[in-house]
Amino acid sequence: MKVHLFIPCLVDQFTPQVGIACLKxxxxxxHEVVIPTNQTCCGQPAFNSGFREEAREVAYHxxxxxxxxxxxxxxxxxCISMLKNHYxxxxxxxxxxxxxxxxxxxxxxxxxxxxxxxxxxxxxIHDACHALRELKLYDQPRELLKRIPGxxxxxxxxxxxxxxxxxxxxxxxxxxxxxxxREKVKTIQAADVDTVVSLDGGCLMNIQSTAExxxxxxxxxxxxxVLADAMISTGEQA
Amino acid sequence: MADLIRQFMEEAELVHANLYLVPRTALDxxxxxxxxxxxxEKIYDARNDAPxxxxxxxxxxxxxxxxxxxxxxxxxxxxxxxxxxxLASLLPQRHIAILDANKIYPALEDYLASGEAPLxxxxxxxxxxxxxxxxxxxxxxxxxxALDILIYTDP
Amino acid sequence: MEFTPRSIxxxxxxxxxxxxxxxxxxxATHHTIEKRDALKAAAPDWNKWRDAxxxxxxxxxxxxxxxxAQFENQFTALGGEVVHATTIEDARSKILDIIKAENGRTVVxxxxxxxxxxxxxxxxxxxxxxxxxxxxxxxxxxxAGEHPSHITAPAIHKNRQQIAQLLHEKMGVPYTxxxxxxxxxxxxxxxxxxLDADVGISGGNFIIAETGQVILVENEANIRLSTVLPRIxxxxxxxxxxxxxQQDYANLMRLLPASATGQKMAGYVSALTPGVxxxxxRMIVILLDAGRRQMxxxxxxxxxxxxxxxxxxxxxxxxxxGGGHAYGSVxxxxxxxxxxxxxxxxxxxxxHAFASSLCGACVDICPVKIPLTKLLLQTRGDVVxxxxxxxxxxxxxxxxxxxxxxxxxxxxxxxxxxFGARIPVxxxxxxxxxxxxxLAKETFLQQVRDGRFD
Lengths: 238, 155, 454
Hints:
The structure holds three protein chains of three kinds. Chain A has helices at 9-14, 16-28, 44-48, 52-65, 77-86, 103-110, 129-134, 139-145, 169-172, 174-190, 201-214, 223-230, 234-237, and strands spanning 2-5, 32-34, 71-74, 99-102, 121-125, 151-155, 195-198, 219-222. By secondary structure, chain A is α/β, with parallel strands linked by helices. A four-stranded parallel beta sheet of chain A has the order 2-1-3-4, sandwiched between helices. A four-stranded parallel beta sheet of chain A has the order 6-5-7-8. Chain B is α/β, with parallel strands linked by helices. Chain B has helices spanning 2-14, 27-34, 54-57, 108-114, and strands spanning 18-23, 43-45, 62-66, 69-71, 76-80, 94-100, 104-105, 121-124, 129-130, 138-139, 146-153. The relative contact order of chain C is 0.13. In chain C, 51% of the residues lie in helices and 12% in strands. Classes of the chains: A alpha/beta, B alpha/beta, C alpha/beta.
C-alpha cells in the first residue's frame, strides 16, 4: 500500500529518531512510503488554545500538502485525533476514501510480517490521553510490544492518568501541568523502569523534560522506537 | 417469585437493611420479637394505631408500616405518600417495613409500567445515611437509623 | 453566577501547596470512582442504559418547550403552581414574595445546585427569613460560611478534625472526631427545624412531563423531611431538568446514583406532586432559565443534558488539585468550566476552560455522554473571540498569527528553526525544574530532503 507519512511538528523538531523508526517499520512491512517534505503542523496547538481561525489556516495547509494521500499514518495520538476527530469542527472534512492512522494502530493491522529479535528490557507504558480515549488505542501498543521476545511490559499504577502536557495548557497553567507531570514521573519510578513508552510526542517530551528537571534518569520513547530497535530487518529475516 | 424474593433480600441486605422472611401467620409474632426491648408507648404501628401528631411520632422509637411494593433490582421499598401512614417510615428512630412477597417487582421500570404506582411516593433503599464526613458511611442522618424489612408469604 | 475575581490560576497556585486539601479531595473522589467502576463492571447493560440516557436527555432538549408545557399542564391539573423565572434576581424575588405572602418565617432547605446559583440561603437569611441548609454537608458549609466545594459532596474539602472543630465552635457541642456523633448533633439540631418550618425549599433532579412529578434524590432523608412537613413546598429547578416519561426517569436512575456516589440506588427517591397525605398545602415549582435557553441556542447546548452527578469532577486531575473552591464558581470542574461562562457570558470565568489538559477522562465517565472536551474547546474559542480587545488576547493572537504564517510557509519555518537551534540557553517551561528540550540537530524532514533514506 502507498502510505503518506505525517511527522508531527514536535516529533520533527525534537525527536527525529521517531520519524526514522516509522519509516523503517513501514518499509519493512512492504509499504511504499511518501513523505511530503513541506508538511509542518496539523494546527492542533492553535485549535486547542481557542484560536480557531489560525488553526483552520494551518489545517487547510496540511490538507493541501496531503491532498493526494489515501492513507495517512503518523506517530502521535493527539495529532492523529486532530485529523480524525477535530478537523470537522473546523469545517474541514477528509473524503471518505482517506484513512488516517496512528502508526501503532496501522502496524497492528498491517504489520503482521514484522519479526523481532530478543530484547530483554523492562518498559513501562503510559497511555497517552488522546490515543487512549479519542482513538481507542489500548490493546494495540501492548500486543505489538509483547511480540518482542524478552520484553517485560510493565503497567504503571494509574497508567491512564494524564501526564499534564495538554499543549499550551503546559504553559498557561504551568504549575498544574508540572504537578501532574511530576506525579507521572514518580509512578514511572515506582514501577522500577527506566524506559517508558507512549503514543504521543507531547507526553514524551513532557515526561522526559520533567524527569530531567527532577534529576531522574528516564528514557521516554514512542512505541515505534522500541519496535524499530528490536525489528529483524528484511536481510536478516532471510 | 422465589427468585425475586431472594434477589430483593440480597440487595436490601447489601444496603444495610435487616431482612426477615415469614409466613403471614407468623408476622405479628415476629414483630413482637423484634420489638421486645422497646416500651410499647414508644412504638407506633400505623396498621392499627390511630393517627398521632407528627411531633409525637418523631419521639417514637419504632415505626411500623406496610409498604406498597418492593423492587428486587435494588432492594428498594415503595412508600405511598398519598396514604396517611407514610410518616411512620420517616420520623421514628427505627422503621419496620412490612412487605407482601407477592408485591415485589423486578425493577423500577416494571413497577412504573404496571400502572400500580401512586403519583406521590418515596422509594426507600436502606436506612437513612450520609457520607458527607470523609466519605465515611454513617447511618441515621435525618431519617431512620435502622430499617427492618419483614417479608410475608402466604403458606 | 458570580465567581471570585482572583484568577483561577492564582487559586490553583495556592491549592497545589495545600496538601491537606488535596489529600481530603482525592481520598473522597477516588473512593467514589472505585465504587462506581465496580457497579459498572457488574452491569452488563451499562452501555445500553448510557446510550438510552444520552438519547433521552437530548430528546428533552430538542423539544424543551413542548415537554415543559406538558409538565406544566400536568402539574397544574394536580393543583400545583408553576412559576417561571428568567434570571437569578427574578427567581429570588419571586421566591421571597411567596414566602412573605404566606407569612413564612422559617425555611428548611434541601441541597440543590440551582439554589446555589441563587445563593438562596444567604439571600433569605439576609431578608430575615431563618433558612437552614439541612443536608449534612451543606449544613457544615453553612456553619463555616463557605461555598460547597463539590456538587454532590459539598464538604469533601474538610477532614473530620476540621469539621469537629467547626461544630464545637459554632454549635457549642463537645469536640469529637467521631462522624457518627457529629452527624447526631446535626440531626438533633435540625429535627426541630423541620417540624417548625413554614416553608421547605428543594431542588428537582428531574421533572417528568408525562406525569407532572418532581423527582428528588437523596440519602439522608432531609429532603423528605423538608418537602412533606412544612406548609409550603417550593421546588426550584432549571428548565433543562425535564424528562419526557417515567421510563426515561427510571433509566436515568440506574446511572445517577452510581455515577454520583457509587451507589446502585440512592437512599430515598421521592416523586412528588400536590396530594401528599398531611403534606404541604401548596406546592410550587420554580422553573429557572438563567441563561439556559441562551445556551440551548448555542453550539454548547449538549451541556444542558447534564444530570449533576459530579463524576466528571471526581475523575478530573485538575479538580483533584484544587476542589471547587479553586474555580470560585458554583459549578466547578469540566462541567462547570463550560456552564459558568455558557450560562452568562464568555467573559465570566474566562480562564476556566483553559484549566484543563483535555485528557478526556470526563468524557469517558459522563453517564449522559456529554462531549466535554469538545465543549471546552468551543468555550475556549468563545473566550478568544469575545475577549478580542484585551491586551493579553491581542498579544496571544499576534503570536498565533505569526505561527500560522510560519506553518503555511515551510521556508520561513526552516529559517526560524535555523536561528532557534542556535540559541545557547534552554528555556524554562512554565516553572523551574522543567525545561524545554533542545531542538534536534537535524529534523527528520531535513534528513529526508537530504536524501538520507532514498
